[in-house]
């Protein structure tokens, strides 16, 4: 399959998966919240945050494995790919064991000295924590198989396997509605089983499908261990800062405001994650091409793809985020009947923060493809940690709960500037050309859509009519204005050729 065909196919696959995951997520969250109640759901969100805070190595190693495997695929060296795969698998196994020790020891101190959990729920919370530690271990050890499938852009099968895990989540949520004892522990057990089944299937499939997935530690490359660990060490710094910026928020909110605010925070994060997925599905299909282009020493193509990925990531995010932002209160009431306090403002502020991060997020992918991530990681980490420290200080002065998200938005603009600067310094990004080709074309569609939605929002009462008008009107106006003002002739030609390819595939399938 040609590169352009593969990208469009993977994009369609990811959006199909996204729709299914969105439906499952909406149903599951409502069922789980109803079954557990605000307190236990808040405990679940808090414990998940603690595990995520202590399991930052997972994302670090995953991105490092993906980068090295995709980069070497660009070089088309099968023997070296085997060495890369076994080296990453060995590192994941070793660090997975270390991670379990760190999490269990860290979890003990968290429960004893930091977390604000009702005494009668401490025991259940600890059992839930142990299940999540096991889930994290399975995930960390088997992450190289995800990296292999991503590097080969085999996103169809990856999506199928991920959906299996989501359907297990749905089954767990349904079971909670008919069970009557140990609901929190039961849900934790199902989350562990979900990861075990999902990751096991990926491992079996990859071993059968890909030549480099030959489990033999004689392929372990000591020099490559150093390269991966050097890359990962700086990724680790960035991951620690990211964890502090995201997961520690939940802990700080818990310390100052209790578990019920953790329920609001957990729901807000789910809402924002679903909206974010609408834009990342396209860029996830494109991202391996950015890294492979650098592996092929084609810097110009790599930067061109980076600009396109940014443009369409922001476009897709804004397309859905604008109407959802304004109609959030009605959607939360429709979804949960009665959302926990502060869910609305948390959700809206997270959406704004995500929008700011989208403006330069793909530049980070370009810098990772080059491999020189030390300076930008240190600067971005300092920005993220500073935002959390300042928020903690504000809480000591009795600032409201949403302060931590407001501060993160302001500091997000510092990250915006840093990404532009290091994109130019490390990857040779032309800043003016990047702004002109990626962000400036989106000013008209975003402005027109915002103006329309704002007018409808203040003209009509909350309800299905306003929701329908805002959603349909904003999407139509956004797409029309994008077609008129934001897309260049080269992109039009590419879209037309891709449409022809899709038509031909549909005709072939029907025949």
From TrEMBL:
Give the chief site where it resides.
Answer: membrane
Q: Look up and give the membrane topology term.
A: Multi-pass membrane protein
Gene Ontology molecular function terms on file = antiporter activity; xenobiotic transmembrane transporter activity
- Recorded protein name is Na+-driven multidrug efflux pump
Q: Name the InterPro entries on file.
A: MATE_fam, Poly_Biosynth_Transport
GO cellular component terms given for this protein: plasma membrane
User: What is the organism of origin for this protein?
Assistant: Tangfeifania diversioriginum
Q: What Pfam families does the record tag this protein with?
A: MatE
Locations listed in the record: Cell membrane
Q: Which UniProt keywords apply?
A: Cell membrane, Membrane, Transmembrane, Transmembrane helix
Annotated TM spans: 7-29, 41-57, 89-111, 123-143, 155-178, 184-201, 308-326, 346-370, 377-396, 402-422, 434-458, 464-485
């Amino acid at each position: 399959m040609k590169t352009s065909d593969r990208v469009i196919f993977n994009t369609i696959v990811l959006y199909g998966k996204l729709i299914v995951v969105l439906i499952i997520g909406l149903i599951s969250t409502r069922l789980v919240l109803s079954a557990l109640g605000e307190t236990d759901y808040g405990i679940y969100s808090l414990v998940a945050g603690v595990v995520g805070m202590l399991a930052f190595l997972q994302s670090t190693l995953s991105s490092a494995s993906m980068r090295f495997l995709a980069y070497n695929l660009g070089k088309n060296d099968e023997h070296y790919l085997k060495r890369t795969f076994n080296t990453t698998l060995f590192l994941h196994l070793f660090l997975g064991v270390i991670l379990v020790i760190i999490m269990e020891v860290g979890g003990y101190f968290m429960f004893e000295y930091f977390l604000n959990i009702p005494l009668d729920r401490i025991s259940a919370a600890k059992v839930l924590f142990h299940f999540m530690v096991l889930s994290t271990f399975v995930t960390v050890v088997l992450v190289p198989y995800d990296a292999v499938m991503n590097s080969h852009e085999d996103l169809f099968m990856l999506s199928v396997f991920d959906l299996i895990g989501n359907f297990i989540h749905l089954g767990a949520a349904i079971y909670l509605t008919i069970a009557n004892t140990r609901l929190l522990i039961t849900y934790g057990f199902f989350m562990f089983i979900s990861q075990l089944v999902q990751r096991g299937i990926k491992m079996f499939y990859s071993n059968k499908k890909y030549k480099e997935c030959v489990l033999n530690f004689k392929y372990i490359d000591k020099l490559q261990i150093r390269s991966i660990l050097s890359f990962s060490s700086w990724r680790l710094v960035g991951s620690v800062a990211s964890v502090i910026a995201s997961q520690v928020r939940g802990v700080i909110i818990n310390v100052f405001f209790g578990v019920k605010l953790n329920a609001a925070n957990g729901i807000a994060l789910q809402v924002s994650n679903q909206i974010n997925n609408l834009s990342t599905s396209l860029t996830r299909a494109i991202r391996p091409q950015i890294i492979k282009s650098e592996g092929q020493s084609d810097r110009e193509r790599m930067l061109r793809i980076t600009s396109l990925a940014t443009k369409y990531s922001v476009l897709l995010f804004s397309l859905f985020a604008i109407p959802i932002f304004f109609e959030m209160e009605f959607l939360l009431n429709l979804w949960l009947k009665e959302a926990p306090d502060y869910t609305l403002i948390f959700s809206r502020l997270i959406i704004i923060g995500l929008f700011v991060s989208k403006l330069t997020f793909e530049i980070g992918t370009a810098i990772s493809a080059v491999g020189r991530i030390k300076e930008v990681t240190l600067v971005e980490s300092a920005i993220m940690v500073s935002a959390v420290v300042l928020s903690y200080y504000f809480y000591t002065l009795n600032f409201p709960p949403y302060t931590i998200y407001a501060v993160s938005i302001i500091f997000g603009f510092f990250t915006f500037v840093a990404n532009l600067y290091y994109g130019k310094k490390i990857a040779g990004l032309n800043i003016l050309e990047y702004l002109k080709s990626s962000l400036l074309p989106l000013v008209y569609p975003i402005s027109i859509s915002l103006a329309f939605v704002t007018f409808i929002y203040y003209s009509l009462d909350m309800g299905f009519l306003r929701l329908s008008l805002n959603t349909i009107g904003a999407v139509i106006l956004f797409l029309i204005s994008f077609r008129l003002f934001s897309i260049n002739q080269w992109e039009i030609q590419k879209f037309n050729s891709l449409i022809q390819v899709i038509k031909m595939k549909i005709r072939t399938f029907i025949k």
